[in-house]
Amino acid sequence: MAIPTRERIILTATELFAERGFEGASVREIAKQAKVNLAAVNYHFSNKKNLYHEVLRHGFTEFNFQMEKLSQEKKRSIVEFSQGLYEMLLQNGPRLINNFKVLLNDFPLPGDLVPNDYAGPPGAEYILEILERELGKKLSQDDGLWAVRTIFTFVVHTALMASTHFGKQTCSHVFEKTLVNRHIARLGQSILRELAIS
To answer: What does each C-alpha distance from 95 to 12, 76, 120 come to in angstroms?
Structure first.
């Protein structure tokens, strides 16, 4: 099935913005690589800034959707969820890397990317829901934020590094799946123990 034009433009723009930054990626080159005419890019996004902002929104929305889908697969423990998140991120390694490159670019973020009171990270509510279900109690905002960020940071950082050429070629033993899953399990169990006594 053919990818819709708008989606094809966003996917191509993500790659080029990640590779060249906002200033280095031209709308003309994006159109050429997406195999669409320049008018199609202008029709869907009006200008380069809007396209860039839509690339950011798309990456954020897609990541959040994948987190939600993963959380609904079954009544997972926090360890199972975190291991599933790691696997999902590995399967989407190039997209994960590109989305981070685009996010870390110096170009200003759209004001409506996230609400003003957003504490993050993407999908935080799903991690928090699993933790509270497993603990059988509601967590304070501080405890919840600490736990969610700790899990998210470890899993995303590890998947990001494992997806790079460095991780695959030089340090592949560090990112061996059994070892990483064991570390994720230890992290999840440690967090549960800490939260149980707080």
So the answer is: 11, 25, 20
Q: Which residues contact 64 (CB under 8 A, 6 or more apart)?
A: 122, 123
Query: Could you tell me the residue ranges of all domains in the chain?
Result: 59-197
Over the stretch 32-80, which tens digit does the pLDDT of each residue have? 999 999 999 999 999 999 999 999 989 888 888 888 999 888 788 999 9
Determine if residue 98 is left, alpha or beta; phi over 0 gives left, psi from -120 to 50 gives alpha, anything else beta.
alpha
- Name every residue whose Cβ is closer than 8 Å to that of residue 52 and which is 6 or more positions away in sequence: 13, 17, 22, 102, 107
Distance between CA atoms of residues 57 and 48, nearest Å: 14
Angle at alpha carbon of residue 171, lines to 169 and 176, rounded to 5°: 100
